[in-house]
Amino acid sequence: MNSSIDAVELTKSLIGFKTINPPGNERACAEFLGNLLEDAGFAISYHEFAECRTNLVARIGSQTSKNPICFSGHIDTVPLGSTPWTVDPFSGETHEGKLFGRGSSDMKSGVAAFVAATIEISQDLEKGNGVILVITAGEETGCEGSYHLASLEGALGEAGSMVIAEPSYNQPWIGHKGALWLTARTTGVTAHGSMPEHGENAVYKAAHAISKLEDFDFNIARDEILGKPTLNVGTVQGGLNINSVPDLTEVGIDIRTTPNQDHDTIRSNLSSYLGEDVNLESIVDVGGVLTDPNNEWMQEVFDIMANILGKPPETRAASYFTDASALTPAYGGIPTVILGPGEAAMAHQTDEYCMVDRIPEAVEAYIEIAKRWNVR
């Protein structure tokens, strides 16, 4: 008799682990999940890229000629933000059909759902092609955990297809944009604020650059699925005090790209466009991922979700990035679907929530996807 875990209750338990990144501190949460999976017969391994920054890889299944299916998700979350929450962000409160808490949608509900699903059919998986679960730390700050795993020989093993359980309200999305985060730095010469003619104002240089960024054109055709690349100025920091000429300003730039764009080329073009007064430094550089919607396995996932959701899914992709940026290439470009119970619009929000009924719905989907992969 296979074990059974309530995925909603497991989501609440995971929310209780304070894995806000920074600092992350994912070890306790990873070990909690590792113990559950080990008890269900999975072989587990932990891989840390820094103190308490723990990735978990769990495997089950016979050695066959076909590689296992991979389910992946991260257990770190973003900070709570400056706006006060109306609920305890770590208690997993439920009311009006919503499960509240930091990470409820992004993406502890997804992790809980695929852990519960694979434990429920663990005996079937053990006899078939198998499954590998890749549960990561550090995704929110540039997929640090997954890139670390990809750099370790043998840590990830092999996989033939992958489900990323990021929030998509249980719609199967065929990929996502890449992300290139840059710091644009301008420098000047400080002087007393009453004598600005003796200084060189770095804020003015940055303001000129920001004005140019608003008009920057990628000169690329719109992607049929992912749309256009985007650029957003998210932060500006400059000056020490009001009565001094600032000698340093830093501007945070968030660029989201389509898979056919080269990030080095974008950075070079942007540097030339902004001119010699601006120095660009990369903070996050992760590629986009896109699977052909006509891929046989992707069509199978669409069929499964059509039966569960009651209507055929639309062909869509995510605007956010995921660990697939590291894992899909590491697995040799395998077909990858983004499919999770969370609400994409609630990611990183105050009073973040996931719709409760989507969690068992995701469990049903993951069980069917895993079963079909294991009978091929």
What report would you give on this structure?
- The chain has helices at residues 7-15, 27-39, 104-120, 122-127, 144-151, 202-214, 263-274, 296-309, 324-330, 358-374; strands at 43-50, 53-60, 69-74, 94-95, 98-100, 131-136, 161-164, 173-176, 178-187, 230-238, 248-257, 279-286, 289-290, 316-318, 336-338, 353-355.
- With 376 residues, the protein is an alpha/beta fold.
- The chain has 2 domains: 7-176 and 288-374, Zn peptidases (Aminopeptidase); 178-286, Alpha-Beta Plaits, CATH 3.30.70.360.
- A 6-stranded mixed beta sheet has the order 1-2-6-3-7-15, with helices on both faces. A 4-stranded antiparallel beta sheet has the order 10-11-9-12, covered by helices on one side. It has a 3-stranded antiparallel beta sheet with strand order 4-5-16.
- A hairpin with a 2-residue loop joins strand 1 and strand 2 (53-60).
- The longest helix has 17 residues, at 104-120.
- The radius of gyration is 23 Å and the shape is globular.
- The model has no long low-confidence stretch (mean pLDDT 96).
The major sheet is characterized as:
6 strands, mixed
CATH superfamily of the largest domain: Zn peptidases
Q: Tell me the domain tally.
A: 2
Physical arrangement of strands within the biggest beta sheet: 1-2-6-3-7-15
Which class of the largest domain in CATH terms?
Answer: Alpha Beta
Binned strand content? 15-25%
Rounded mean pLDDT is 96
Q: How many E strands?
A: 16
First-last Cα distance = 23 Å
